[in-house]
Amino acid sequence: MALTFSGAAPQARRRSWGTAAARTFAAAALLAGLAACDGDRIRALEEGLSTEADVRAQFGEPDRIWPGPEGTRVFEYDRQPAGQRNYMIAIGPDGRMAALRQVLTPENFAQIVPGMTAEEVRRRLGKPARTTPYPLKQETVWDWRYLEPPTTSMVFSVAFGDDGRVRRTGSALDPQSEAQRAGP
């Protein structure tokens, strides 16, 4: 039985599908590689022993450095928009790693409440995957991709009013996830 296609020739359709499939495979391989690399990087560090230089050697330059309590500095390492994790690594006044946290968790999302400033949210969750302005609603929505344990791809969203304060938050299935698009 022969397949017929309307529009482009079958060879062109196969070529475009092949290209799309290759892009999807490459993106999945990259994400898997990033996740594996982060695990290796984390295992190479030890709280209280690893130095700032060790952290930078494993993770590179931080996306942002936040002042922390009692002379600590918090290094922000974003894995958005393609990744599903963001890390905050605290460096104590002695120059040693005091803590390493993956911050895109339901527990941290629960701490984001109406009235918080955009800076407070960024300090807790790191850089969002996407920022979308809605001028007619007079708000901007920040989205972070994350994994709901054990393996559900989700998006956490925070809506800010024009005053830069949180109006509301919510979570939904990640529409960019291959598993979500495939359906049951």
Q: Topology, pairings included?
A:
Elements: H1 10-43, H2 52-59, E1 64-67, E2 73-78, E3 86-91, E4 97-102, H3 106-109, H4 118-125, E5 130-134, E6 139-148, E7 152-161, E8 166-173, H5 178-182
Antiparallel strand pairs: 1-2, 2-3, 3-4, 5-6, 6-7, 7-8
Q: Specify the overall morphology.
A: globular
Q: Round the Cα radius of gyration to an integer and report it.
A: 20 Å
Q: Count up the helices.
A: 5
Main sheet: strand order: 1-2-3-4
Structural description of this entry:
Helix content is 32%, strand content 30%. With 184 residues, it is an alpha+beta fold. The longest helix is centred in the N-terminal third of the chain and has 34 residues, at 10-43. The model is unreliable at 1-35 (pLDDT under 50).
Task: Give a nutshell description of this structure.
The protein has five helices and eight strands. With 184 residues, the protein is of the alpha+beta class.
Features:
alpha+beta; 8 strands; 184 residues; four-stranded antiparallel beta sheet; disordered N terminus; single chain; globular; 32% helix
